Recover the amino acids of this structure.
């Protein structure tokens, strides 16, 4: 059975292995150079007046295309294993009628499925794991620059978290078994692939929106209002309250900011309008003085921003939990497949 | 002698539709069983139940004393050549034999190789490139070389031309004799079965109409021709299977154990085809028909 599984899978496996090997070769060749550039740039920029922010920004912008391209590859990889390895696994047999050939050999279909699911699933997980390892290694310097960039790409944030560490392995396992399950239910390859893609995409969107923020209670931090979290200051013509627009940023550059609110001295939420004089005093618009006096005034009055976020120190804990969730989902679907398989004919 | 297939009140339902109802059979070993019936009568369903590809909805079935498809040992005892003789289009003939060898502990490699050689199949050619007849032969080889005690074939020759059909059935019969196999073979064509079967099951409208050894069936069914008369007035031991009347003459096909003594009848022998056609054209449900007429 292992032979048959391999015989049926080898073309797809070879194509995937070739693509991943090509990617790995490119990364292996360019990776050390990229790391060198980053290291030399960092030592060079410490003497500059603005610190390293300009260098980090330039470094990120120079490598943005590769960074986003690799992110896309890593986002697509689990979905592709579900689409091209998972969905056709059973539909192909059903469409050709060969399930009636193979299920009548001296091997139970439970064993048939166990070996097919096991071997192909492990291959999917290995492919995702190796790709994640290679991409994470190569992108190390860019990730650091990206976190410092505006708008940033924090490691805990919804984009990078999904394509680094061990979660791609969980995604691949889930996507693969999802494809098999949908194929078993839908029985035709193309609709099964379409449904697999739709369901997997929905789960991938739902996870960071509905589940991941609640894996641990978020950390709350109060942040002074300053240039770094200011989106905009608004003055109404002829006076009136100050309009304050703030950005939701985690105090920790690699953390994941969930929400923020402006609070007054007693801790109550304030809408964006702050009752402070804009006709005179420190918060009156004055191009010469800049906003720093106003920030000091707001601090004196007790206004500050409260941010709830997941710090980057939780990265691996979250990775483990989320991989576990996807593994359990995959195992659940696999169990369903085994029960359902008896009724397929 | 043990039964090769025993079914008791066996039924299979898909949604609301019963594909097979109340099927009771007891087929002894060592027969070549022809399962005949029109398309959609439930032949494939019955065969799928027998090899364990489907679980029954009602009743029970045992094949060679075991639950169909329940264990690798049971699977090893029953060979199955499915409808349209599926093979893996991308795998070569040799790889199909390897598949058989890997998945069947009782695989007879010498037999498989010998058959492939005799059929003139190149081991390196892909199954997708074979003709329908060659593909059917390959599927049969897989079924035979696993050395089953019972080989089930679902319309194996339906897609073949007459020559390939004959070669296939000939090969099947030789193997059945050599390996002392029991065979169950379905077809909607009587002529396919005529040459090979010694046991017959007629399945019409999800129901077994008649089952038994062919010789006995032919010996107990008679065609009666004589002056026109009402079939209801026949002796109680004569069951009318079909009746046709002209103005003056009646032709009846009856089943009876006893000899027919009525001198008014001319008693004729019937062929297998006559027998099958009589059961196929028989009103499907004689018990329900009168009630329907009352409701109308």
């Amino acid at each position: 059975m292992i032979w048959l599984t391999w015989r049926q899978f080898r073309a797809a496996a070879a194509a995937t292995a070739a693509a991943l090997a090509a990617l790995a070769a490119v990364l292996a060749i360019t990776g050390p150079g990229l790391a060198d550039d980053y290291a030399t740039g960092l030592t060079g920029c410490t003497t500059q007046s603005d610190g390293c922010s300009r260098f980090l920004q330039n470094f990120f912008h120079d490598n943005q295309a590769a960074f986003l391209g690799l992110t896309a590859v890593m986002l697509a990889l689990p979905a592709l294993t579900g689409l091209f390895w998972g969905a056709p696994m059973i539909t192909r047999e059903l469409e050709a009628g060969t399930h009636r050939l193979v299920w009548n050999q001296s091997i139970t279909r439970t064993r048939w499925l166990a070996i097919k699911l096991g071997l192909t699933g492990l291959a999917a997980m290995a492919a995702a794991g190796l790709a994640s390892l290679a991409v994470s290694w190569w992108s190390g310097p860019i990730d650091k620059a990206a976190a410092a960039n505006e708008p940033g790409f924090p490691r805990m944030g919804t984009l990078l978290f999904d394509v680094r560490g061990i979660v791609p392995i969980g995604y691949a396992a889930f996507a693969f078994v999802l494809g098999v399950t949908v194929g078993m239910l839908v029985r035709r390859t193309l609709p099964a692939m379409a449904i697999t893609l739709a369901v997997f995409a929905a789960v991938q969107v739902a996870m960071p929106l509905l589940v991941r923020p609640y894996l641990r209670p978020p950390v709350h931090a109060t942040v002074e209002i300053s240039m770094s979290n200011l989106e905009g200051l608004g003055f109404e013509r002829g006076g009136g309250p100050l309009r304050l627009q703030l950005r939701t940023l985690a105090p920790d550059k690699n953390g994941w900011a969930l929400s923020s609110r402006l609070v007054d001295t007693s801790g109550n939420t304030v809408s964006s309008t702050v009752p402070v004089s804009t006709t005179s005093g420190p918060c009156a618009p004055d191009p010469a003085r800049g906003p720093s006096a106003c920030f000091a005034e707001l601090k004196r009055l007790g206004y500050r921003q409260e941010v709830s976020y997941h710090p980057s120190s939780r990265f691996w804990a979250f990775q483990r939990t989320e991989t576990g969730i996807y593994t359990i989902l995959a195992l659940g679907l696999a169990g369903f497949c085994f029960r359902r398989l008896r009724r397929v004919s | 002698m043990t039964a090769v297939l025993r079914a008791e009140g066996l039924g299979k339902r898909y949604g609301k539709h019963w594909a097979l109802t109340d099927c009771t059979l007891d087929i002894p070993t060592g027969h070549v069983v022809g399962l005949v019936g029109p398309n959609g009568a439930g032949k494939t369903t019955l065969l799928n139940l027998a090899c364990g590809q489907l679980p029954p909805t009602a009743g029970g079935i045992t094949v060679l004393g075991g639950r169909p498809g329940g264990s690798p040992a049971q699977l090893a005892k029953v060979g199955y050549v499915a409808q349209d003789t599926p093979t893996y289009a991308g795998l070569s003939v040799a790889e199909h034999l390897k598949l058989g060898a890997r998945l069947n502990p009782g695989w007879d490699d010498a037999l498989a190789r010998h058959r492939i050689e005799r059929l003139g199949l190149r081991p390196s050619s892909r199954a997708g490139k074979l003709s329908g007849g060659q593909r059917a032969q390959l599927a049969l080889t897989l079924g035979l070389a696993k050395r089953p005690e019972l080989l089930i074939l679902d319309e194996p020759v339906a897609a073949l031309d007459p020559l390939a059909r004959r070669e296939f059935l000939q090969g099947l019969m030789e193997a059945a004799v050599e390996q002392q196999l029991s065979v169950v073979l379905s077809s909607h064509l009587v002529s396919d079965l005529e040459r090979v079967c010694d046991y017959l099951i007629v399945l019409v409208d999800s129901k077994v109409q008649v089952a038994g050894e062919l010789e006995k069936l032919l010996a107990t069914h008679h065609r009666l021709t004589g002056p026109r008369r009402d079939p209801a007035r026949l002796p109680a031991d004569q069951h009318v299977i079909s009746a046709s009347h002209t103005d003056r003459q009646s032709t009846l096909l009856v089943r009876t154990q006893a000899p027919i003594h009525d001198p008014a009848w001319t008693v004729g022998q019937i062929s297998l085809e006559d027998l099958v056609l009589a059961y196929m054209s028989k009103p499907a449900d004689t018990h329900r028909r009168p009630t329907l007429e009352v409701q109308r």
